[in-house]
Structure formats: structure tokens, C-alpha cells
Amino acid sequence: MLSIGLTGGIGSGKSVVSKIFAGLGVPVLDADALAKKIMQEDSDVKASIIKSFGDEAYQNNTLNRAYLANIVFNDPFQLQVLNTIVHPATIAAGIAWAKKQNAPYTIKEAALFFESGSAEGMDKMIGVYAPDSIRINRVMQRDGLSRDEVIGRMGNQITQSIKMKLCDYVVINDEQTLLIPQILSIHQELSR
Predict the structure, then answer these.
(1) C-alpha–C-alpha distance, residues 150 and 166, integer Å
(2) Most buried residue, 146, 167, 180, 187, by CB count within 10 Å?
(3) What is the pLDDT of residue 114?
(4) Is pLDDT above 90 for 91?
(5) What per-residue confidence (pLDDT) applies to 113?
């Protein structure tokens, strides 16, 4: 079974592409959702987050995402601290999930594959590309963030051009190019 990574910058449309693959019967793991679950449920991870960011990181035993986001998306060092806490547990949980699957290939969707070093465990990488202007508008609408906040978050990821060069396949999600034919082509190749 092949392990396929699916990545792209914030607002590129990774989730839309993942849902299409899932609709084709491909097991898909959303690593970002898994990381959020781990931050909420893993006692060791929670303890490390509280130690690094203070008791305010959790309110009523629930992750205070706004508080944490305000810290880590404004300070690259603090973002690295959080990633150092969360990424190892997420990678381990992803490996355990993949071992339970029975399909020609699985997809693990994550924004920070190359940044976290977890791309090295993948057989192939799929990148989702969208122009920056579209990405900014998508995230502003989706998350209610200002343009500057979105650009700041984009600055915490490696540039889209570098990310796409590191991928084996690139899906163009520019609101003009059809997604399904691109995904079907990749699916057929990976299913052989």
C-alpha cells in the first residue's frame, strides 16, 4: 500500500481535493484535524502546551485556539515550539492509522508536510496549487481573518512555488481548471 501525502498552502483547497479522493473510496486522514484532536485529548501534549504557553492555553479543559493562534501566528519561534510538541504525536498517530487501512493507497492531508519533515515518510506527494489572491480571499471568508492576518499565516509556510516543486503531482485549484479530471488521472495512476 502506498502512502500519499497531500499538501498545499493555506486556502489552496486541500480539503476539497481530499473529499474528492475520499469519494473515490480512498482512505484519507486529515492531519490538521488529527493534530487538533491530539492537542485536546493527549494528556502529555496538553501538559507540554500548558508548560510552554501557560494555563490560558486551555479554558474549561478545552483548547483555547484563539489564544494559541494569537501567540504562534505572530511569533515564528513560538510556532516552532508548538509544532515540536504536536507534530511527533500527530505523525505517530498517522502511521498507526495508515497501518489499519486496506487500499491500494492512502492519503494523509497536511499543510506542513515539508515544514514538519513528515514528507520523508510518504511514497508520493500531491500538491494543491491556487493563486495567492484566491487563497487570501478564501481564508478571509472561511476564517473571518483580515488580509494581513492571512498573509502573516502564509508567511509561516514555505512558499507555494517551492512546495509544488517538491511534489510528484500538482492539482491546479484556480476556480477555472476542473478538479475531477486531474484527480481521476492521479487516482488511476496510484491505483495500478
Answers:
(1) 23
(2) 167
(3) 86
(4) no
(5) 84
